[in-house]
Task: inverse folding
């Protein structure tokens, strides 16, 4: 059972343009949520490649070397992510600007991560757009590029341009895009996989009453996987009626509480199958199933395979 929206979505082709001095943290927070989506859905919904201006090796601010898949010239796709981070001013110049302007014609969407906004603005790719940048550079950015409407936000989405203020905000941005394009329930799964405390923060409107209620309910579910509660009990512990919880969760996550709860238990099954040597019977008990057969049926329906086949594969 797939309860995320747009479950027939085509794979999104992403190119990450790295410059010397890029942030490992920003890169990980950009790519790892996409990897998690592929793992959770069992589909390659995101395909990415690392590129540089000339195809040469690039080194992060902490010395991690990355060998790009190719140079940026000729690469095309759905989304180009520009990621210079530290020392970004040294990466400007005519060659960079021409490469960015040409690449922008080959991608449906361009994202400036961290200080990538500066290079995009220098290339004229943010003229008339709203944008943000790492907040340490915000004042200088606004003074240098008066044709850009500069906002102090974690990220700004303006048609085919997106700008993001830094590494932590990058995770929030990618979660938001996952929720927008593939459904909020899947975004919550990704957030929980990374043990994000406020798993609905980035895609359910922030600290709204509805967001807090859904988060409380998710926490109750997560704490009661081995001995599942009824949805009425979950709602009560979250401080709401069952009807209210069902309405809020359907509105925010696109799924009823029972479906979300079942998915959390099955995610635990998959984790235990892949990462432990526990027997299928023991895993069934830990995930709150009365029998291995019942667990296997639910697992096959959700993931298209059985726990034993997953472990053997």
Result:
């Amino acid at each position: 059972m797939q309860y995320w929206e747009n479950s027939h979505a085509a794979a999104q082709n992403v190119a990450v343009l790295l410059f010397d001095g890029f942030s490992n943290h920003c890169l990980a927070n950009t790519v790892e949520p996409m990897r998690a989506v592929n793992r959770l859905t069992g589909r390659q919904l995101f395909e990415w490649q690392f590129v540089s201006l000339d195809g040469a090796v690039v080194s992060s601010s902490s010395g991690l070397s990355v060998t790009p898949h190719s140079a940026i010239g000729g690469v095309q796709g759905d989304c180009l992510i520009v990621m210079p981070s530290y020392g970004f001013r040294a990466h400007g110049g005519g060659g960079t600007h021409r490469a960015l302007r040409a690449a922008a014609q080959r991608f449906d969407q361009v994202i400036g991560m961290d200080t990538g906004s500066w290079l995009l603005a220098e290339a004229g790719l943010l003229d008339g757009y709203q944008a943000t940048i790492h907040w340490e550079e915000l004042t200088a950015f606004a003074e240098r590029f008066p044709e850009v409407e500069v906002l102090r936000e974690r990220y700004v989405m303006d048609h085919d341009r997106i700008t993001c203020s830094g590494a932590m905000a990058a995770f929030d941005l990618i979660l938001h895009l996952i929720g927008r394009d593939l459904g909020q329930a899947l975004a919550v799964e990704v957030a929980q996989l990374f043990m994000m405390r406020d798993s609905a923060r980035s895609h359910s409107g922030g600290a709204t009453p509805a967001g807090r209620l859904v988060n409380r309910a998710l926490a109750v579910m997560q704490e009661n996987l081995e001995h599942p509660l009824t949805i009425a009990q979950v709602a009560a512990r979250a401080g709401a009626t069952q009807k209210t919880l069902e309405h809020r969760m359907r509105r925010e996550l696109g799924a009823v509480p029972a479906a979300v709860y079942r998915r959390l238990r099955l995610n635990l099954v998959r984790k235990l199958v892949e990462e432990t040597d526990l027997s299928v019977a023991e895993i069934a008990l830990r995930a709150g199933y009365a029998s291995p057969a019942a667990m296997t049926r639910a697992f096959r329906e959700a993931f298209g395979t059985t726990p034993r086949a997953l472990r053997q594969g």
About this structure: The chain has two domains: 12-177, 204-313. The longest strand covers residues 12-18. The radius of gyration is 22 Å. Confidence is low (pLDDT under 50) at residues 199-209.
